[in-house]
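Students often ask why inverse folding is considered easier than folding. One informal answer: many sequences map to the same fold, so there is more than one right answer. In these notes we will look at a single instance of the problem. The structure comes first.
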């Protein structure tokens, strides 16, 4: 057999998806994923900050109107309901695409293969450190610590809601993993090892639930000047932890997107439940106070 010329070995290989626009787009996105992620994260944080400032100014200009507890509660309910519907719709769409054909899986693989060729080791090491913030041990430790702090401050009901939200999100993700039973991508760089099924990403959904609930607790308990910065920090953390699973190739891109959507839907449902419980408790207190006044008159 004649020797193969060195020029032929060094020539770019023709990819099997050269004729498929979706797979070519997935390959191109994977080749530029690091830059795209940084630009997208900065843009998302900036957009969220702008929306937050506009909403704060709008609320300040209509403070007498929003002092009506019914209206304020209705606005929270509508916002949370929108989050639930949006997150559930994205998750359902991804799950449907995975179940009806191989193109989503092929696009995932093309993206992951491009990542393995394009992301430098230094960036992977940073993501390997950041992904620990979404480990089960880290999230469980945060759950216990925050629950103890809430109990110490006398917020027993809030502590129970916090624990139920975190635990429920973890149970939901584990259940769905076994329902879909998707195999993980090959990750042989030695930086991070992950076992179990791949879809949806537990780090992504767990981080959205835990750090999203921390943002909710900040809105409830911290002074107003901390609300925006804490919420943006939690948003950046959840997105970065989710993205780290793609860059480290322990999850496909669709796993991470579905995990983020699932966590968002569960977070919205939990916040609605907590707010409904608060509203019902206040209503009962008002009715009790009115009854006591009627008896004394």
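Output (designed amino acids):
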């Amino acid at each position: 057999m004649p020797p193969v010329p060195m020029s032929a070995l060094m020539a770019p290989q023709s990819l099997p998806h050269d004729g498929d626009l979706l797979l070519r787009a997935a390959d191109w996105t994977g080749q530029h994923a690091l830059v795209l992620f940084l630009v997208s994260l900065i843009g998302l944080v900036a957009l969220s900050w702008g929306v937050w400032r506009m909403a704060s100014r709008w609320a300040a200009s209509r403070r007498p109107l929003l002092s009506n507890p019914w209206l304020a509660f209705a606005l929270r309910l509508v916002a949370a309901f929108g989050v639930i519907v949006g997150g559930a719709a994205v998750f359902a769409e991804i799950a449907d695409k995975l179940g009806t054909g191989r193109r989503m899986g092929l696009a995932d693989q093309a993206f992951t293969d491009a990542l393995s060729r394009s992301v430098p080791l230094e960036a992977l090491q940073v993501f390997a450190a950041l992904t620990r913030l979404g480990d089960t041990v880290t999230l469980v430790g945060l759950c216990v610590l925050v629950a103890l702090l809430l109990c110490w401050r006398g917020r027993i009901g809030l502590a129970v809601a916090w624990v139920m939200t975190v635990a429920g999100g973890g149970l939901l993700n584990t259940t769905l993993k076994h329902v879909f039973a998707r195999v993980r991508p090959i990750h042989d760089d030695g930086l991070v090892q992950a076992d179990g099924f791949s879809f949806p990403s537990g780090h992504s959904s767990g981080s959205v639930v835990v750090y999203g609930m921390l943002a909710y607790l900040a809105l409830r308990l911290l002074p107003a000047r901390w609300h925006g910065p804490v919420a943006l920090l939690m948003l950046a953390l959840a997105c970065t932890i989710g993205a780290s699973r793609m860059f480290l190739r322990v999850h496909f891109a669709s796993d991470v997107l579905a995990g983020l959507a699932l966590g968002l839907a569960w977070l919205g449902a939990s916040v609605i439940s907590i707010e409904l419980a608060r509203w019902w408790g206040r209503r009962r207190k008002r009715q009790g106070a009115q009854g006591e006044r009627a008896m004394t008159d």
